[in-house]
From TrEMBL:
<dbReference type="InterPro" id="IPR012080">
    <property type="entry name" value="Asp_semialdehyde_DH"/>
</dbReference>
<dbReference type="InterPro" id="IPR012280">
    <property type="entry name" value="Semialdhyde_DH_dimer_dom"/>
</dbReference>
<keyword id="KW-0560">Oxidoreductase</keyword>
<dbReference type="Pfam" id="PF02774">
    <property type="entry name" value="Semialdhyde_dhC"/>
</dbReference>
<dbReference type="GO" id="GO:0009089">
    <property type="term" value="P:lysine biosynthetic process via diaminopimelate"/>
</dbReference>
<comment type="pathway">
    <text>Amino-acid biosynthesis; L-threonine biosynthesis; L-threonine from L-aspartate: step 2/5.</text>
</comment>
<dbReference type="GO" id="GO:0009088">
    <property type="term" value="P:threonine biosynthetic process"/>
</dbReference>
<dbReference type="GO" id="GO:0009097">
    <property type="term" value="P:isoleucine biosynthetic process"/>
</dbReference>
<comment type="pathway">
    <text>Amino-acid biosynthesis; L-methionine biosynthesis via de novo pathway; L-homoserine from L-aspartate: step 2/3.</text>
</comment>
<dbReference type="GO" id="GO:0046983">
    <property type="term" value="F:protein dimerization activity"/>
</dbReference>
<dbReference type="InterPro" id="IPR000534">
    <property type="entry name" value="Semialdehyde_DH_NAD-bd"/>
</dbReference>
<dbReference type="GO" id="GO:0019877">
    <property type="term" value="P:diaminopimelate biosynthetic process"/>
</dbReference>
<keyword id="KW-0486">Methionine biosynthesis</keyword>
<dbReference type="Pfam" id="PF01118">
    <property type="entry name" value="Semialdhyde_dh"/>
</dbReference>
<dbReference type="GO" id="GO:0004073">
    <property type="term" value="F:aspartate-semialdehyde dehydrogenase activity"/>
</dbReference>
<feature type="domain" description="Semialdehyde dehydrogenase NAD-binding">
    <location>
        <begin position="3"/>
        <end position="118"/>
    </location>
</feature>
<dbReference type="GO" id="GO:0009086">
    <property type="term" value="P:methionine biosynthetic process"/>
</dbReference>
């Protein structure tokens, strides 16, 4: 049994991490929720009871085996090395460590053995990258993907609690006939799609888009070319992606469906004759990456289109982090002796 900390326990992802640990019956002897000092003493729900939140900081991790972080990049840059130096293995959900060459970036269905190289910190990839690679990995193994063109339709929960509250507030303002107020997003998000997530960089792409490029190279294959467009849409939970792949080997559509049906972490929903395809509402609260709308792309020699949907707070964040913890246990992490 393990002593597990959740850092950022009162946030949207931290709350989901605690729920996921409980749902999957992770072998926990003690749950240690942590947050900023101002939140110390508050309570979180766990296994029918309440657990008091501890302030994260120096000395807080000396009795921790695994620390799941969802506290933001700035906090992780400071706290993750402290936790690792005090003996905890950190699984960090922020962007702080993802591209550090000494830190493994892991999707358990794609590159599980990468955890073996950790030096106390393991990075959780970006939510949009995770679901894309879970869907693409079985096809890459079979046909060797050369190029991915992906457009994302990302839920506001990817922006945290303030973003979710803004969408809810705008819905109320619209219903009451009031002026719709904008503060979190650059434009009104209600009834809208905004092709802008994170900041723009020199090449005209956003940081969110470039994360998908760089993380794909680190996790799956540096030879795969990735052309992304990331869009925020007025959905509370669940990211959707339109993915076009071009492969080295010819793709057999029926075989591709069979590969996805048996792929770990994937649920195939693909029968247009019965209007069966995944939507954001289908994946809400679910662990799987849902795949549908598979069809051959006739404009390139070996092309395939698919529609991929996943709960960004589950597989896109909390679940992937917990699965990394499960990998550590499977690979023989020893609980510290108290």
């Amino acid at each position: 049994m393990y002593r597990v900390a959740v850092v950022g326990a009162l946030g949207a992802v931290g709350t989901e991490m605690i729920k996921t640990l409980e749902d999957r019956n992770f072998p926990i002897s003690t749950l240690i929720p942590m947050d900023i000092p101002e939140m110390a003493g508050k309570k979180v729900r766990y296994r029918g009871g309440e657990v008091e939140v501890r302030a994260a900081g120096k000395g807080a991790f000396k009795d921790v085996d695994i620390a799941l972080f969802s506290a933001g990049a700035d906090a992780s840059l400071v706290l993750a090395p402290i936790a690792a130096s005090e003996g905890a293995i950190v699984v960090d959900n922020s962007s702080a460590w993802r591209m550090d060459p000494g830190v493994p970036l892991v999707v358990p269905e794609v590159n599980p053995d990468a955890v073996d190289a950790h030096k106390g910190i393991i990075a959780n990839p970006n939510c949009s990258t995770i679901q894309m690679l879970v869907a693409c990995k079985p096809l890459h193994d079979a046909y060797k993907i050369k190029r991915i063109v992906v457009s994302t339709y990302q839920a506001v929960s990817g922006g945290g609690g303030p973003a979710m509250r803004e969408l809810a507030a705008q819905a109320g303002q619209y219903a009451r006939g009031e002026e719709i107020k904008v503060s979190v997003f650059p434009r009104q998000i209600l009834f809208n799609a905004i092709p802008h997530i994170d900041v723009f960089v020199d090449n005209g792409y956003t940081k969110e888009e470039m994360k998908m490029v760089h993380e794909t190279h680190k996790i799956m294959d540096p030879a795969v070319e990735v052309s992304p467009t990331a869009v925020r849409v007025g959905v509370f939970r669940g990211h959707s992606e339109s993915i076009n792949i071009e492969t080295e080997k010819p793709i057999d559509l029926a075989e591709a469906k069979r590969l996805l049906e048996k792929a770990p972490g994937v649920k195939l929903m693909d029968d247009p004759s019965r209007l069966l395809y995944p939507t954001a509402l289908d994946c809400d609260g679910q662990d799987a990456v849902f795949v549908g709308r598979l069809r051959t792309d006739p404009t390139v020699p070996n092309g395939l289109n698919m529609w991929v949907v996943s709960d960004n707070l589950r597989k896109g964040a909390a679940l992937n982090a917990v699965q990394i913890g499960e990998l550590l246990v499977k690979k023989g992490l020893k609980p510290r002796k108290l």
